[in-house]
Amino acid sequence: MIPDYVGELVSSTPDSYHAVNFSTYSNPGTNNVQRTLVEITNATFLAALENVLGALSGGEKYQINSATLTVGSVADNYATTGNAGAYRVLVPWDSSDVTWNEADADANVAWSAPGLAAGVDYFATSVDTGAVGTYTTVWSGLGSTVQDWLDGTDTNYGLFFPDPGGSGGVDYTAVENVSWTLDASIVPEPSAIVLLGTGGLVLVLGLRRRKRSKV
Description:
Elements: E1 5-10, E2 16-18, E3 21-27, E4 32-39, H1 42-53, E5 60-72, E6 85-88, E7 102-104, E8 109-110, E9 128-129, E10 131-132, E11 136-139, H2 143-151, E12 159-161, E13 168-174, E14 178-188, H3 190-196, H4 201-206, E15 213-214
Antiparallel strand pairs: 1-2, 1-4, 3-4, 3-13, 4-12, 5-11, 5-14, 6-9, 6-12, 7-8, 10-11, 14-15
């Protein structure tokens, strides 16, 4: 699945953004810092899951066994050691007019600090650290994050990818080179198992009729 939005915020030209690139890059000597926001809505996830696994019946939920975000770069990734972390965004923002300084430029809603502030605009601890390859960075540990979004445990404001600190990063890549892959299955809701009790054993087994699938 291609994310709904992949946008790069650029510090060397403040208040600008690129809606078609993924880049987390830092060159302190030129104040060239690029950070990326990635958004994929719950509706997009659910539509893809329903297309592959089928619609949910009463008492069922989609169980996310794993979720992977892959970014293929046009040049070497992270030329120097750095943080390939993915961070959960904590506040709403508008993909149509987000900038380096503002989460929603039309509504005059600013980030807490230019380029997003850790612990306020995005969770200070990464939800996953990417495995960096020569031309690809893969975040394969996002299953619990997606599950929490779909369950409503956390609000889905997307993910943030800051510059790695120091020089280096993921070079420019087109949005077509950014993709999500889910491994998922349909399972009974925990509450349904409690309500059914032993008398619902046959029904519970029947709810596992569909094999898990990749989306």
